[in-house]
Amino acid sequence: MMVTPKKPEEGKMIYESGEACFVLGLSWNTLRKLVRAGEIRAKRVGRRYLFPKDAIDMFINGEEYEARDFMKGLK
Fold this sequence. Notes:
Low-confidence stretches: none
CATH topology: Multidrug-efflux Transporter Regulator, Chain: A, Domain 2
Number of domains: 1
Radius of gyration: 11 Å
Largest sheet: 3 strands, antiparallel
Structural class: alpha+beta
Helix content: 40-55%
CATH class: Mainly Alpha
Shape: globular
Order of helices and strands: EHHEEHH
């Protein structure tokens, strides 16, 4: 899957893959690895991944343990 980073619109609460890559400054391959490891919360919808803004904020603020615990609760 090819993902092009793009700046999200102001006030957006759900980011698509390209927007999450832009905000975090990561490539799609790196971001996908973080999602699979449970470091960043995301929801897969078909072939797309959606990232809640608060999940991105938690990762940026070093609250990845909370995100990982949240993901474990979903399994």
